[in-house]
């Protein structure tokens, strides 16, 4: 595996610059942006499919009425925009929602296909901010805001105009470290809230019933539920080790980082396979891969 990664890195370096010996996170940036494009695609395809029914003019919680209420409470639409920046202050019609969704889908596919510059990522981030600021209950989940933070950081991984898969400008080391810090915060937040919550996480019994009681099980959930009790306890211990212990190694040596990252990736893959938390786990892979 180490030899394969080294070979891929050398290939990326040669494709990127005149000086292939210069250090950098070229391959990391390429993989991160492709995965980010996939997550944005999930988010905006959902907006196209469900947006009008949820927050459209005749939806369950119309964005038009919500923005009108905010403007009345704050005294003007300008004050409302300052409090809740959103392109939908211009129009929150069903057509505007679908247009934003389709623009997001197209730009996401462009990023996923290998072309990403700071301008494209700024538009995607602005669209996501616009949606969550009018989405109310339906866009109040943590992964929506996490996508804003992750997408915002990734803007600074790219040149302003050069969108090639391996542009001449090297990836920012500062942004890579900020993405690693984001991974640490996500892991510690998830781990500590479990310890503060139900005692089953401390008794190692949560997985005895988690897979059959989670909000949206998937076809593999019954198989995970059918595992013996001992395997469930091992799963809880593994969860605690990944979310509470592994983050300490994120800023260690390269081998420490790879070990911590591999453990975190393994947990996210298990979560994707055993349940459905929208695009949360796919999104969490982005800073972990950094």
Shape: globular
Number of strands: 0
Radius of gyration: 21 Å
Count of individual helical segments = 14
> What percentage of the residues does DSSP assign to strands (E)?
under 5%
What features would you describe in this structure?
By secondary structure, this protein is an all-alpha fold. It is 69% helix and 0% strand. Mean pLDDT is 92; it is low at 15-22.
The gist of it:
By secondary structure, the chain is an all-alpha fold.
Q: Top keywords for this entry?
A:
globular, 14 helices, mainly alpha, 290 residues, single chain
Layout: helices, strands, pairs:
Layout: H1 2-16, H2 26-55, H3 63-74, H4 77-83, H5 94-113, H6 118-132, H7 142-155, H8 173-196, H9 200-203, H10 207-213, H11 221-225, H12 229-245, H13 254-274, H14 280-289
Helix pairs in contact: 2-5, 2-7, 2-14, 3-4, 5-6, 6-7, 7-14, 8-12, 8-14, 12-13, 13-14
């Amino acid at each position: 595996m180490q030899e394969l990664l080294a070979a891929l890195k050398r290939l990326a370096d040669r494709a990127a610059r005149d000086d292939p010996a210069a250090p950098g996170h070229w391959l990391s940036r390429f993989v991160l942006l492709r995965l980010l494009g996939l997550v944005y695609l999930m988010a905006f395809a959902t907006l196209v499919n469900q947006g009008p029914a949820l927050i459209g003019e005749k939806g369950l919680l119309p964005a038009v009425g919500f923005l009108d209420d905010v403007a009345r409470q704050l005294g003007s639409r300008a004050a409302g925009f300052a409090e809740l920046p959103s392109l939908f202050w211009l129009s929150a019609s069903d057509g505007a929602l679908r247009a934003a969704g389709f623009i997001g889908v197209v730009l996401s596919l462009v990023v996923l296909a290998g072309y990403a510059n700071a301008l494209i990522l700024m538009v995607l981030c602005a669209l996501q901010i616009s949606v969550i600021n009018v989405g109310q209950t339906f866009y109040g989940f943590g992964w929506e805001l996490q996508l804003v933070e992750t997408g915002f950081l990734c803007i600074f991984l790219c040149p302003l105009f050069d969108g090639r898969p391996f542009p001449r400008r090297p990836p920012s080391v500062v942004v890579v470290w900020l993405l690693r810090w984001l991974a640490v915060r996500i892991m510690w937040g998830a781990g500590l809230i479990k310890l503060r919550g139900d005692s089953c996480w401390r008794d190692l019994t949560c997985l005895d019933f988690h897979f059959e009681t989670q909000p949206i099980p998937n076809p593999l959930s019954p198989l995970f539920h059918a595992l013996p009790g001992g395997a469930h306890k091992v799963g809880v211990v593994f969860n605690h080790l990944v979310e509470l212990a592994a983050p300490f190694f994120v800023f260690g040596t390269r081998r420490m980082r790879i070990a911590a990252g591999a453990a975190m990736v393994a947990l996210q893959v298990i979560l994707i396979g055993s349940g459905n938390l929208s695009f949360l786990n796919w999104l969490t892979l982005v800073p972990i891969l950094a």
